[in-house]
Amino acid sequence: MNCSRPDSRSACRLRRPEPPNLREALQALTRELREGGVESPTVEAERLLSHVLGIDRTHLALEGGTALPVEVGKRLAGLVQRRLVGEPLQHLEGSVAFRTLELVADTRALIPRPETEQLIDLICRLVPRNRSRENSVRSVRVIRRPGADRAAESIPRALDIGTGSGAIALSLASENIAQFVVGIDISPSALEQAAENCQRAGLDARVEFRRSGVDPFSALKAGDRFGLIVSNPPYIRDDELASLPAEVRECDPPEALSGGTDGLDLVRCIAERAPDFIESSGSLFLEIGASQATAARRLFRDVGRWKRVASHPDLAGHDRFIVAEPL
Ligand SMILES: C[S@@+](CC[C@H](N)C(=O)[O-])C[C@H]1O[C@@H](n2cnc3c(N)ncnc32)[C@H](O)[C@@H]1O
Q1: Which of 54, 159, 177, 224 is the most exposed place for a label (fewest CB within 10 A)?
Q2: What's the pLDDT tens digit per position in 66-87?
Q3: Ligand 1 pocket, mutate which of 266, 268, 277, 287 (most atoms under 8 A from CB)
C-alpha cells in the first residue's frame, strides 16, 4: 500500500501491525537477551517462549509459523524485562529440573545447582560399596527380590543438613538411595518450599523436614542415627559475598550463601557434631567451594573422629566434595 497518497492516509492509521509469528518472536527475543548481556540468549529465549506458551521447547520449531497471541506477547515482554534486570531464569519459569525431579524455584530457597546433582552421583557410586561392607544397625531391611544385588538389601536412613528446596533429601528418597530422609534447615521459608516440593514428588511418607537453630543438630533427638549424612552447606567466605554475580547475591537467600570468615562455619560444625549422629558404618558427603578442599580435609582430620577423609572432583575438575567415615 502506498501511504503517501492522500486518500490512503486514514486506512494506514487504522492498519494494525501484524503480530509476529513464533519464529520471528524467537529471533527478536534472542537478540534482545544477547544485547542485554545474557550469556546463553538462544537457549534462554527458547525456554522463555516455550514457558509462556506452555509448550515443549521441541515444539517451537514445528509451530514456527503460528502467530504469537497478543496477550502471550505482553507476558513475554514482562518476563524479558525481569530477566534483563537480573532475575534468574528459573524464578521466571517457576521451576528447576534437578535429576529426576521438577522442583519449585523462587526466592524462598537456593536454586539447586548442577554440582549438587554431581554430589548425588558420587553418593550413588560410593555408597553401595560402603554399604556392602557392613549393614547398618538402624537401616531398613527391604524384601530381597530374586537376583537383587546384596548391597541393595539394606538402605540407610539419611540426614540432609541445610536442605533448602529439599533437592538432596528428595533425590535420596526418590532414587532409593535412602529409605527415609530427615532434612534440616534454619530457614522457615526454605522449609516451606521443601515441603511443597516433597508433596509434589509424592514423598511425604519418606521425607521429614525439621527446623533448626544455628546449630543444625539441635533439630535432632539424642537417639537419632543415620547411615548417610549429606550436606551442601553455605560456603561462601564473607569477603567474597559482595563480588558474587548480582543474580546470585540478590536472588538466592543470604543464609544459603554466607559461610563465615573462611566459608567453613557449617563445615566445621558438621565435622565436630556429626560423629554423634552417624552410624559406625555410615558415610558423610559434603559439597564445598572449589578452593576449600585442603582446608576442609584438614578440619576433618583435626577433629580426630573421622577416617578415610578424601576429596573428590566435580566435572570441571575442582575438588568439590568431601567424603568421610566415622572412626
Ligand atoms: C547452599 S544452600 C543448599 C540448599 C540445598 N541443599 C541445595 O543443595 O540446593 C544451604 C542451606 O543451608 C541452610 N542453612 C544455613 N545455615 C544453616 C544452619 N546453621 N543450620 C541449618 N541450615 C542452615 C540455608 O538456609 C540453605 O537452605
Answers
A1: 54
A2: 899 999 999 999 999 999 999 9
A3: 266
